[in-house]
Fold these 4 entries.
Entry 1:
Amino acid sequence: MAIKKKIYFASDFHLGTPTHEKSREREDRIVRWLDSIRDDAAAIYLLGDIFDFWFEYKTVIPKGFIRLQGKLAEISDSGTPLFLFTGNHDMWMFDYFRQELGVEIYREPIVREFSGKKFCIGHGDGLGPGDRRYKFLKKFFNSPLCQWLFARLHPNLGFGIAQGWSRSSRAANDQKEQFLGPEKEWLVIYAREVLEKTHFDYFIFGHRHLPLDIQLAPGIRYVNLGDWLHYNSYAVFDGEELRLEYFTEREPTHFSSAVDRKN
């Protein structure tokens, strides 16, 4: 049996959009990817927007996604640590995944050290300059009052409203993001600001829906994980090197983004 030494990172599955059929195809593909990495994964980090919408009532969760949940439970039960971040689409995760699947939940970026390398890991929403409207809405949606009010709605109504929001999202409309350039990418700006105070070797985020690998300084990189709507991209750290790869149903292939390793 292979030694489990690799750390895997993926984000932005957006299960539930744009249609049930396409979501199911994507879910099956993600499950096959998890099967392909489980034997050598020392840990798996899922960095948010796993679902296009998620809300946990006290006794009700959204219908579907059972294949992914079953695979995560299987991997967790085998002893491989799983870490799940909330994103801007699935911030209303509470205790279900922790209690039922043994998955740790994070709502803010965290710091980890692997093989002497320091990582800043998070979904990426609400970081960096600008977007004050979203930052206000995020604070409101994360408030106990907002969550309490939404929980008062019958699930049929609550999930119906959420599906209406989802249909207007960039994921539902199949919109590919465009690279803004290293001076305008807000997560790059955020990473550079953090580096003024604290050293990191790697910044790993999702949210942008673009596989990006940008050198911020010698030996320091910002990596965005892309998404599984268009790229099937993820990152893997083998103890020596962090690589962006994409799942091709065969062997993992190194992914060279449009700005791979550029300043």
Entry 2:
Amino acid sequence: MQTAAPEKRRATRPRADALRNRERIVAAAREMFVEHGPDVPLDEIARRAGVGNATVYRNFPDRGALIREVVCSVMDRTAQAAEQALAESGDAFAALERFVHASADERVSALCPMISSSFDEHHPDLLAARHRAERLVEEVMGRAKAAGQLRTDVGVGDLMLVVAQLSRPPAGAACLSADRFVHRHLQLFLDGLRAPARSGLPGTAMTWEDLRPA
């Protein structure tokens, strides 16, 4: 008598409410990393996300896992904004402008935790997200340069560092009130990127490598 082979267990998909909780945690962490830095208490992140502490730890066993997820999320969404810019068939510099403003809205300054010595910058998920984002941003800038609209002495590191700095509120009690000026100041910066350049820049163009820890 033959016995039936045991059925393979089906991988259970996370429930919709569990996915929403995870998304809320990542969104709250991204905002709080921007406002207070990567050492903000996880209890505070849970409170802003509207979930319990246990829910945070169930999704992210430690701070490093949460920081990595936030960074990957920001990179993925920045890459999507670059893809949308590349899909546009119109003015190349206008597409670059829309990408820059979209990147600021994604809080790219949340990538700052990468400089922390306790952060695993070589994690496979992070490397994959980083390489995709870097490639797409370089394509957006390359298209604007090929069209003769973007000054040639600007590197991708120059662009992303300024976007990160301008999308991060300055220190101070009323720092969040500066958020309403972010896109105004970004446009001032973008106008300075247009070719032909009115002046030469000191030093050399900043690259992705210059943004990484030594």
Entry 3:
Amino acid sequence: MIGGARVHLNRWQQTAVAVGSAVGALLDPRRADLIAALGETTGKPAFERVLERMKNSPEGRAVLLERPRVISSKVGHAWDLPENTFGAAYARFMGSRNFSPDDRLPVRFMETDELAYVAMRAREIHDFWHTLFGLPTNLLGESALKVVEFEQMYLPMCLLSVVGGTARFNEKQRMVFFKHYFPWAVQAGVRCTDLMCVYYEQHFHEDLDDVRRRWGIVPAPNIPK
């Protein structure tokens, strides 16, 4: 999924893919393939910075060395953990939505194996962040998480996703997002630890509230109906 599917693009081809993906993603934010391509073709400088931070972190270096994958065969044991644990919360999140960790798209446009892995890791831990921040998977929740992701990684794709998402809000959603979710997401993304340097799988067995406190994570606000 990381190495064999990669495609080498020259600068003009990268620009063409980026522009085409951006236009397509704005027209249809549900196109995960276009969002993925946009993230890869515009995100190289951001992923390079993330890679350096991971190399400077003991836990991040362990992730780079062992290259864990968030796929069913590697995280399936989370379904057997005690209810209060981070792993069990992740399993509930996935099971309640009938999601599979195997559904993530491969990385195609990263130049090196290291950058391809970092891009894949960012893609695969997305649902860990949903679990930790307590965000739903509707348009509001996904847009809020993209704000957190931007604060953590400075990926241009995250900003475009927020623009595309908010453009599709109705009046009530827009009010809720900018009154409750957006200011929380900006602060939450800054306050927490460097989440790309966390070896999540080694913390599955730990209490969810404990890992949230240790990583400085403030869950999303409860929005009054």
Entry 4:
Amino acid sequence: MSTDAKQRPVYVISVAAELVDMHPQTLRLYERKGLIRPGRSSGKTRLYSERDIDHLREIRRLTQELGVNLAGVEEVMRLQHELDDIQDEFEAEIERLEGEIRARAQTHALPSSQDAVTDPRDRPVYVISIAAELVDMHPQTLRLYERKNLIRPGRSSGKTRLYSERDIDHLREIRRFTQELGVNLAGVEEIMRLRFQLEGTRARLEHRIGDIQQDIQSRMTQWRELPSSGSGTVDSESDTQGDVQKAETL
């Protein structure tokens, strides 16, 4: 199913509730909590999409199968909505770039993407004893969280664990969920899995957009260097169609 089809609001609340085996009042509660974001018809009737149905099933899995409390579910769904939004933004950016190709804006060069620069916050610098002190945890707790894949420290050439500023932020978040919000370990695992997925997805999409921008920049340079003859125009149109097809396959 395409992304647009999954986002199309089609189910009234009674049908959506039946599909996920919940009471309609439960869906209204989840909406007030920001866990679900149904659309509205012109008459203000709630309409749920396939994506909303997927989210509701995920909420049921978290609460009924994993025993995650509402605070944990709220964080999981916040991250899920962020993932949805970044995917939508990426698709919108692809459409914009396709428009640039079709228009063949030869007088305005797109900014060339720069080589990816490692975020300083990802640089592994803290040994486990310092990291544990910074987050007020025992080093053994950090080792447990690593085995649970809640944290992913780097390694020195000698295989010593080294934690980054981002790792420290993640550990503080884990402590907040467990100590302040009472989220169980299963819930924290879901939250951190989505957090890693969100960060990885954002990095991959930004890299792909950069690649597309570089390709367009190169093509536009080639177009400017083409002779202004009839045959050159035909070739340029052919290249344009090929670039659009390439962007649509990404």
